[in-house]
Amino acid sequence: MSVQIFSTAREAKEFLVERIALQARRDAIPLSDVERKMLYFSETAWTLPDMAEVNARFDSECDSGEYERKIGGIVRNIQRAQVKDEDEQRKWNDALALLRNEDHYLLVLIDSAGSGSVRPRGDFIKLVLTALAIVCAVLVVELYLAGRQWGYRVGRAD
């Protein structure tokens, strides 16, 4: 049985926000004070005391779609790095599990990062090439079956 690392949702949230801010610095992705504070947003659970002001500033200064993509990229980089560090991955997962009992914007940001909404480079080309290969295979089978139906023998001269 594993020991729970975080005793409160606040501790779990602070851990996740700290990891995101640290990874943003590593990736040289600037996070404004408002963007960092928005990671704490919740309508029903613990949040920063000035969240109403932060939320108003965020709405007027930031593009939420761009922000969500930015945080999603940072989270994906964290998840890639955690593959090498089981202890960090366990802490991350424990923090998420504790927060899932409440409503947090941070969970939306993290969950959408894992949804694959941003495809890796070259993924579209692989998709197109796979589709072309399938179409070609279907055409070859169709031509073979059509030839058999009309009595053509492939490779034999009469």
Taking the sheet with the most strands, its summary is: none
Low-pLDDT regions: 115-119
- Over the alpha carbons, how many angstroms does the gyration radius reach? 25 Å
Order of helices and strands: HHHHHHH
Shape, per Cα inertia axes: elongated
The end-to-end span amounts to: 77 Å
Q: What structural category do the secondary elements indicate?
A: mainly alpha
What is the total domain count?
A: 2
Beta-strand residue percentage: under 5%
Task: Write up what this structure looks like.
With 158 residues, the protein is mainly α. It contains 7 helices and no strands. Helix 4 (64-82) packs across helix 6 (105-113). The longest helix is centred in the last third of the chain and has 27 residues, at 123-149.
How would you briefly describe this protein structure?
The chain is mainly alpha-helical and 158 residues long. The protein has helices at residues 9-26, 33-38, 51-61, 64-82, 86-99, 105-113, 123-149. It is elongated and about 80 Å long.
